[in-house]
Amino acid sequence: MRKITRLLKNVWIVTFIRRLYFASKYFNKKYFQILKWGFTSKEDTNFTYHLTQDNIQYLAHTISVVTKINYFEILEYIKEVQIDESLRDTILTAIENSNEKKFVDKDVRFGRRLGWYAFARAIKPKVIIETGVDKGLGAILLCAALLKNKEEGFEGRYYGTEINPKAGYLLTGKYKEVGKILYGDSIKSLSEFTDKIDLFINDSDHSSSYEYQEYMTIKSLLTDNTIILGDNSHCTNKLANFSQEINRKFIFFQEIPSNHWYPGAGIGISYTEI
Ligand SMILES: C[S@@+](CC[C@H](N)C(=O)[O-])C[C@H]1O[C@@H](n2cnc3c(N)ncnc32)[C@H](O)[C@@H]1O
């Protein structure tokens, strides 16, 4: 038998097929996930999914390294939002009341935004800016973090920049009390902003030049404590470059969606080591 196997190994076409089969095993599951998603999901953009457990663990460690806050405390923040029934109900009600419900799944899946939440809980920001609001999933999540911070005595405000006047319908109820959407072009809104920014999330126009322009626009509003999160860092190195230019650290967290065809985006993290 061993002799036959050795002989077959020398036949080019057999080895070729075996090698292709081996490589394709990494992707074949994806086609089943695509088919399942085609039948079960209504989403056609800004896909949502849960993260794998291991990925959540890595996320908590990453945030712990950046913030120098204990890993278990960060993990608690993540768990806190995963079981937040009030937040979940508000989102599901807003979906039900929206005109877009035909294109939105009636489920709440935060993906890498869990990391945005944990940062917002960990650093207790006075000012959060998120550029690009879309439905408002990040917006309501970040406002939920600000409300929890407020219960602990740390007040903060959320500002979302968004060019689409119909965007942001998920930001409702008590969450809206700590958040505001600045409608119009992001660069314009950012250039009119004067407060120092504690947490900045880039997620608007995903062209690399626009992303970089956003960072340049807010440069004078950064402090040593500001954390910048880039939602484009799986596609461009603009946040890494910007960080190098102004002597900041940069790391990238790769998200791993659970049971979904999407390969995952990530979180670029720019910070100053004090
Ligand atoms: C990927 S989505 C944002 C997703 C959102 N952060 C979330 O957590 O789900 C990008 C959004 O940026 C908005 N956008 C695109 N170009 C923009 C610009 N120049 N100024 C402001 N918003 C812009 C789009 O309308 C879209 O809603």
How would you concisely characterize the structure shown here?
The protein is α/β, with parallel strands linked by helices and 274 residues long. It has helices at residues 2-9, 12-40, 53-67, 71-82, 85-97, 113-123, 137-151, 186-191, 208-218, 238-245, and strands at residues 127-131, 157-162, 179-183, 199-202, 227-230, 249-254, 266-271.
Topology at a glance:
Layout: H1 2-9, H2 12-40, H3 53-67, H4 71-82, H5 85-97, H6 113-123, E1 127-131, H7 137-151, E2 157-162, E3 179-183, H8 186-191, E4 199-202, H9 208-218, E5 227-230, H10 238-245, E6 249-254, E7 266-271
Parallel strand pairs: 1-2, 1-4, 2-3, 4-5
Antiparallel strand pairs: 5-7, 6-7
Bound molecules: S-adenosylmethionine (SAM).
S-adenosylmethionine is lined by residues 46, 113, 130, 132-135, 137-138, 161-164, 167, 185-186, 203-205.
